[in-house]
Amino acid sequence: MWRKLDNLNRIAETGIVLIIRLDSEEEALAVADAAVEGGIKALEITMSVPNALGIIRTLSNKYKNDDVLVGAGTILDAETARAAILAGAEMLVSPQLNPDMIRVANRYQAVTISGAYTPTEIFDTLQAGADIVKLFPAETLGPQFVKTVTAPLPQAPIVPTGGVTPQNVQEWLQAGCIGVGVGSYITKAAQQDGDYSRVTAAAREFLAAVAAAR
Ligand code: 3PG
Question: Which stretch is the leader sequence (predicted)?
Answer without folding.
Answer: none
